[in-house]
Design a protein that fits this description.
Layout lengths: L6 H9 L4 H17 L9 E5 L5 H9 L8 E3 L6 E6 L4 E7 L7 H12 L4 H20 L2 H4 E5 L13 E3 L6 E3 L4 E3 L2 E3 L5
Parallel strand pairs: 1-2
Antiparallel strand pairs: 1-3, 3-4, 4-5, 6-7, 8-9
Helix pairs in contact: 1-2, 1-3, 2-3, 2-5, 4-5
């Protein structure tokens, strides 16, 4: 992935396609970057706590550089389009929450119907593309405050991610990160085997 791409292109390339959820994530990521006055993460300077596992998170990863692999993307399965972005260097965080029904336009409803439908006729596929173009324009040009609420967040920034040794589970034989293993006598047991 080319780091010199504009944020929207980075997100689309990372996610694999363009969709309304990704666009909302792009808006949130760009806002966080400006609000906190930060550059994309290189070595855990930023931390993102996301409360959904939907498309918008891919924008957070690709634009801000917060990833599971680096240990600076934390997932809390609350099913909410909420992103808390923190800067270690600035000791600040912002919590960005998508407003309920931020995009109640009929185009969005129809787009979702077509997306859930699966196989589309040529006419439906063309309609879906036209709807996406309309939704794209609306999401990318609507004032941010109409789409999201945000506030400075009191946030205890955790230490940077640790690298732990891998131990072998005595039951399944698979490797497991040592602090996630449970000791059973003198033997390690992974969480899935307990």
């Amino acid at each position: 992935m080319c780091k010199n791409m504009p944020p929207l292109e980075l997100a689309i390339q990372f996610h694999g396609h363009i969709c309304p959820g990704l666009l909302m994530g792009v808006r949130a990521a760009e806002f966080a970057q400006k609000y906190l006055d930060v550059s994309p993460d290189q070595d855990e300077e930023l931390l993102a706590v996301v409360e959904t596992n939907s498309c918008g998170v891919d924008a957070i990863q690709s634009i801000l550089g917060c990833t599971f692999g680096k240990g600076n993307l934390i997932f809390r399965d609350y099913g909410k389009s909420v992103y808390t972005i923190a800067s270690r260097d600035k000791d600040r965080a912002v919590r960005i929450a998508q407003k309920y029904q931020a995009q109640p336009h009929p185009d969005n409803v129809r787009y979702r119907e077509l997306s859930r439908q699966g196989t589309l006729t040529e006419e439906e596929a063309a309609e879906k593309e036209n709807l996406l173009a309309s939704i794209f324009e609306r999401i990318m040009t609507t004032p941010f405050e109409e789409l999201f609420n945000w506030q400075e967040a009191d946030f205890a920034i955790p230490e940077k991610a640790q690298i732990y040794p891998t131990v072998q589970c005595s039951i399944c034989g698979e490797g497991v990160m040592e602090p996630r293993a449970i000791m059973n006598g003198q033997l390690y047991v992974c969480p899935t085997c307990t």
